Amino acid sequence: MRPKPVRAVGTNIVLIAVTIAVLVPFLWMLSLAFTPADRAFAASDLIPSSPTMTNFATALTSGGLGRAMLNSTAVAVIVVITNCLFASMAGYAFAKLRFRGDTIVFGVLISTAMIPVSVTLIPLFLITKGIPFAGGNDILGAGGTGLLNSIGGLALPYLVVPLNIFLSRQYFLEFPDELAEAARTDGAGELRIFFQIYLPLAKPLLATLGVFAFTGIWDDFLWPLVITNTDAMNTVQLALAKFLTSGNVQYGPVMAGAVLVTVPVLLVFAFNQRAFISGLADGGIKG
Fold it and tell me: What is the DSSP string of 69-113?
């Protein structure tokens, strides 16, 4: 057996190598974002000798990334709110309430998470198109475009994600039932028990659901590509893709756009880091 210091050095070398492998693409992205277009592939150093903000201006204006970020932010706010509210309520119901067939319903619900996204695209498209009274539709959902090419349509498949219901159930299983029983003895209803007793204790869970919901919708490319058909409804991933498919790839604006798109994700994670890790540990490991 090798001495512990030797093993520790070997472990550190591996960790440093992995860290460098992960960080180099991000550092190259940052470098290219601040590099003038005519020196995009001429610079040999990682730090640009003459940094410029032109790439960011190009990405936000000619590339339409500014409008796309507003669209993605609006969709993300809706999705985060609905997942934190409805997924936590559903998870509480499966964890603390007993009703006939609850195990079967929960199993069926979670099994839907295993279905490939490509399989559900056409049904989701038809449902979105057939929403009654939306986009010129009548009461039967015919005659118009429903929620296609709209913020509501972009958010619809992500309003309540089965994985978030699973995490919520596992989290609430850790809470003692005596809290609810004491509240019921005092005459409290289930909604009051949930909102005034359990939910205030579930801040780590809400942070976890929020991070998952935000990153899920922020990084989505396929669903926005299917239901939007105008530049005004582009999301951030579609806006970035247009730089690569325009026939004249502009690497500087692409990397500047990638930096701008990455910043909100990092901020969301940074502000929720402690609660996010605590929520995963409580809901995933203990559950």
Answer: HHHHHHHHHHHHHHIIIIIHHHHHHHHH---TTHHHHHHHHHHGG
